[in-house]
Design a protein that fits this description.
Largest sheet: 4 strands, mixed
Distance between the termini: 22 Å
Structural class: alpha/beta
Helix content: 25-40%
Shape: globular
Length: about 350
């Protein structure tokens, strides 16, 4: 995420801000410009979900749609007369706007099914308080159990599944990854390259998931995958890898936007620092290969983990990337950068 400032007074503002706390200017996010701008100038109008979804995105004048680019790809929402469901919906939509911002920033297509019924994407935001909900993707429709927005539920599930990391934004990134497998691999005919790295996606998906939940990940999975769940099936391996790639790119961009630099420690009287401990994440904003990006990423994660430990918290980045996992990330990186 980039850093944003008030266009009136220059005060630092968050991506979600609707008001500048210094000068009182009314703000909104213009997804076409990728900037926080003044609201109510006549060149744009607020999304109609400004109340329902606490949406601060704008719709440009002349656009026939009432909802913004992020809200338009939500096809189903829960009964918002229920305060708990409404709060969970707000959290999910807030995370989705961050996701959509990144996808647009990376130049990936974000088209709703209203605009492209055959190839578009849609989010169903459902509450498992009222019906059985299985988070997943099918034919461009992404179903999200809004219970994932509840910290207690999510942490309980994380512990039950033995996961080191579980967030609502991470869920959205994983599920959209399934959609982009269709866009970047299937429609582009990159099956042979995909199968060489991830395996054959034509293997029985349901049987593979049943085996995974019955037996757990294969021994030594850390040498080949970014997560234990990635071992379940090549499609899940791709989705986990794609989500991980978005984690890396977003965090590097945020670090660069705020001028975070990791210089590493010196040893004794030495004045030289191991280059592997130095990170200037602004370098990662250029059109680099994945190896260069990870050269900035790893020192940054060392520092972030150390900061978390100083606060008595678990590691912010509880992962170790094997060469095989990095090769998969490089494949994702190359597909995302492809024209």
């Amino acid at each position: 995420m980039r850093a944003f400032s008030c266009p009136t007074c220059g005060q630092l503002v968050y991506f979600e801000n609707t008001l500048c706390l210094r000068c009182g200017s009314e703000l909104g996010f213009d997804p076409e410009a990728g900037e926080i701008v003044l609201r109510g100038t006549g060149t744009s109008r607020s999304c109609t979900n400004v109340v329902l979804a606490a949406c601060n995105w704008l719709v440009r004048a002349g656009d026939p749609h009432d909802r913004c680019r992020s809200c338009r790809i939500t096809s189903t929402r829960p009964d918002l007369s229920d305060p708990e469901a409404a709060a969970a919906f707000l959290a999910a939509e807030r995370a989705k706007r961050r996701l959509v911002f990144q996808l647009l920033d990376l130049g990936l297509p974000v088209v709703g099914r209203d605009d492209d019924p055959e190839h578009g994407v849609a989010f169903e935001m459902l509450s498992s308080r009222y019906e059985a909900v299985t988070t997943g993707h099918a034919g461009g429709v992404i179903t999200i159990d809004l219970a994932e927005g509840d910290d207690a539920h999510r942490e309980r599930t994380r512990l039950e599944l033995g996961e080191p990391y579980r967030t609502l934004l991470g869920h959205l990134r994983h599920e959209i990854g399934h959609y982009y497998w269709v866009v970047l691999v299937d429609r582009a005919g990159r099956h042979d390259e995909f199968r060489a790295l991830f395996g054959d996606e034509r293997d029985d998906y349901r049987a593979a998931l049943d085996r995974h939940y019955a037996n757990g990940p294969t021994r030594g999975w850390e040498e080949h995958y970014v997560s234990a769940y990635a071992t379940a099936h090549p499609w899940e391996d791709w989705a986990e890898t794609f989500a991980h790639y978005l984690h890396v790119r977003d965090t590097l961009q945020t670090a660069a936007a705020f001028g975070v630099i990791v210089t590493g420690p010196t040893t004794g009287d030495r004045r030289d620092i191991d280059p592997a401990l130095i990170a200037a994440p602004a370098n990662a904003l250029a059109d680099q290969d994945l190896e260069s990006l990870l050269g900035e990423w790893f020192p940054l994660t060392y520092a972030l983990n150390a900061l978390n430990r100083s606060m008595g918290r678990d590691d912010l980045y509880p992962f170790v990337l094997s060469p095989r996992a990095m090769a998969k990330l490089a494949f994702v990186h190359d597909l995302v950068r492809a024209p």
